[in-house]
Write a structure and sequence with these properties.
Elements: E1 13-14, H1 30-43, E2 47-51, H2 57-63, E3 73-79, H3 91-97, E4 103-109, H4 112-117, H5 123-139, E5 143-149, H6 151-157, H7 159-172, E6 176-179
Parallel strand pairs: 1-2, 2-3, 3-4, 4-5, 5-6
Helix pairs in contact: 1-2, 5-7, 6-7
Amino acid sequence: MSDQRTDDLIIIFDTTLRDGGQTRGVDFSAADKQFIAQALDDFGIDYIEGGWPGANPTDDMFFSKDQKLKNAKLVAFGMTRRGGRSVENDPGLNAILNAKTDATCLVGKTWDFHVTTALNIELDENLRMITESVAAAKARGHESMFDCEHYFDGYKANPDYALSCVQAAHQGGASWVILCDFERRQPS
């Protein structure tokens, strides 16, 4: 991918190796993932989300090897650090940070309801988790992206908090902030 930016630039971020792998009946091997990543790279895809290091042996094997992509940036997906843990003491986050990739895409809660009920933590702790996790990825040399889980539901319920999550990612050094809609709703 060229470092040149233009107003009409379209960047393609492919999630076949992670989202596609969640499809019923699909079970990629590490070799399958390597083959598909090479094909996507040859096709000219800009970013290839390879999976979730630490989530399963296939992804661990895939991310332990240099994929030698010519065009694309390989992306490791995963969660921000867990509440009550430091970046250094979170094995899940460290699997992502240690992956042999150019970039990371860290997902985090941006809907206050999910922060307090699913994560069972204070809203400010979630903001620290976002900032510290993104900053850790950047400090390891990864281009860092933040995936705002259920962003539009969160924004509808509490716009100030949802925007605070975006700001926390930016403060941590995120190059990209992705506003996700898991429910296929359109913003009003």
